[in-house]
Amino acid sequence: MNKKFDDLLEDDLACFLCALIAFALFFRYVDLSPGRRCLSAVAAMHVTPRTCPGPGDLWQPSWQEEKREAEYERLLERFFEEYIPRYCDERINQLAEAGEDERHPEIEPLFDGFLKENEWR
Q1: pLDDT for 83-102, tens place per residue?
Q2: Whether the model pTM is above 0.85
Q3: In this structure, are residues 87 and 114 in contact, taking their beta carbons and an 8 Å threshold?
């Protein structure tokens, strides 16, 4: 049940709660003292609220995210092509040959260790 933040925003209730929290945070910066009756410097800045994305909205990763994803894919490929055949037992090799991915319960701890060995952040 791991939902991404963007998936949660597609839910109307989640959008409503986000808007409610944003509204409450806005008033945190309002100076209601009798002499001023104005917004603080932070709240007075031009702010455009983020709208909840709709089902047709497109999201594009930044170049840093693309680079990180490419590095992950490279490590994943190396794990299955080099690490498993060399260091794992027959059962893990059979699972990999059968098409199981790194999320399989028997493969996941090995892959996590492989990522740590390769200093994956």
Answers
A1: 999 999 999 999 999 999 99
A2: no
A3: no
